Amino acid sequence: MLDEQAKRANVIKAFQDLANVDNGIRKDDPIVIYYAGHGGEVSPPSERGLNGSLVQCIITQDVSKTNGVVPIPDFTIGALVHRISQEKGDNITLIFDCCHSASGSRDQDLVGARFVDKKELPSLAPSIDWDIIRGARSTSRDFVEPQSLGMDSHILLAACGHGEVAFEDRKEHRGYFSMALLKLLESVRVDSLTYKGCMQRLPELRTRRQVLARIHVILLASYHIYFTPVRAQNPVCEGKHINRIIFNARVPGTSTSFIAINSSPNEIHLLAGLVHGITPGSKFAIHANDALGPDNPSLGTLEVEKVEPFIAHLKNGEQLGLAALAYGRQVAYGSEQALDICVTEQFVEAAKPSSKWARLFSGGQEQLVLRPTDEKLARVVLSVDSNREAVFTLNNQTSIKYGVHTLPAPGSSPIPPEAPHVAPILAALAQWNWHLHHIPDVRPFQKSIDVEFYKLQFLGDYTDQDSPIFVPVGNNLVANGEVDIVVSDQDCYGLNIVNRSMTDLYAYSLSFSATKLTISTPRSCSRAVHP
């Protein structure tokens, strides 16, 4: 659909046609929806102005204040895509070469930008596209907007991040993002490329705005004048399945344990560091790409020599002759990630003899480093119960206080005191425990952040995205850094994080389960939420 054909009604109908039962698209067939054009932000309709956030939208050919045709808002696109996924599965890729916000930009910097200012766009009427939203919500209450993290229904490849600008080459009349993406897809085997790997392989976009920034550097450097760098155009990839093979839902995809590696003649380093849990002495198997399978064997193993907050330097990597971008998968941990453990005599007597025990406690188990110690100093005490089944006791004061310090949890299957059953649990405990207690040496924002926890009340109504509307009731439940509640499946709670610093901060919340040894992330929204 090109140029004048791309009118609002036609674009919406094209989305709806993809969801038709008899259109020849089978369940889980790959569906690619590509949009290249202008985007923008407008004020929300009256029933959606709950938090004051602007609504992102795409600008079709016929949008005009004169004829009353409004842009297509993000919540309408979310409903349309959700309807497609209901009929055709979640193998949907959205590619948007546009931008929605150019705040803080000078007009002369926006030549060639795929952005339309809010003041030039018509306002959204109340209950806009309600028939489309109602059609999606009639069958379920689980869809989210394209811009939200944890997207189950699709992957979003966007030309730029929030607050950035997407540019086009004015001579070619094509977006820099689209040109770079097409060039990449034509140069690699798509059946071994993941969405995440695709975005990591994209070159730096040589937009006009970046060229202007470099000229400013040259002109001002000799006079020692300092300025705020102009933001670049950085494409983003969002969605639950970003580790899936691109355009192919049936391929298992990648392991999230793969970490990108940058290689140059002088240095090889992981794109992860201390904040990601990497420590000196850790070892990584090196692979050409991040797709699991026999076509991607290990090229060798490298050890971490030095770690910085966001990168880790690998030693002796030049011998592998790596490409500029490779991937590492952790296969051994450094001594800093050792698990302090006490093994009781009762467990030793009950344990089934095996040569695996010797390897386990001598460092022969690559993904686990155990450090035997006294019971009072141990993070974990390994013992047996009255039935001579293995019991793991966590010496975590908070877990002990609330009675969730022993594994397996009540009602779980017993664990025989045998190495094949015990070793995986110890490995999980080691990683879970290390991440739980891992904090940076310097925490400059700790005194400027308040964490609040509230019980929520459902108002009995839903947003247009079909999300239930809650309001906090009662006081902040946090007391001395803890929240003590009796869990009920009828109750809902919300976390409120207050930033009192002068710096923009982004919160990543993690949930540590002491009974399942899992570390999970709750769903959150990647869009800016204004106070």
UniProtKB/TrEMBL annotation:
Q: What is this protein called?
A: Peptidase C14 caspase domain-containing protein
Entries under Pfam families matching the protein: Peptidase_C14
Question: Which superkingdom is the protein from?
Answer: Eukaryota
Domain Peptidase C14 caspase: residue ranges: 4-187
- GO:BP terms for this protein? proteolysis
The record's annotation in InterPro entries points to:
Pept_C14_caspase
Gene source species:
Thanatephorus cucumeris (strain AG1-IB / isolate 7/3/14)
Which GO MF terms are attached to this record?
cysteine-type endopeptidase activity
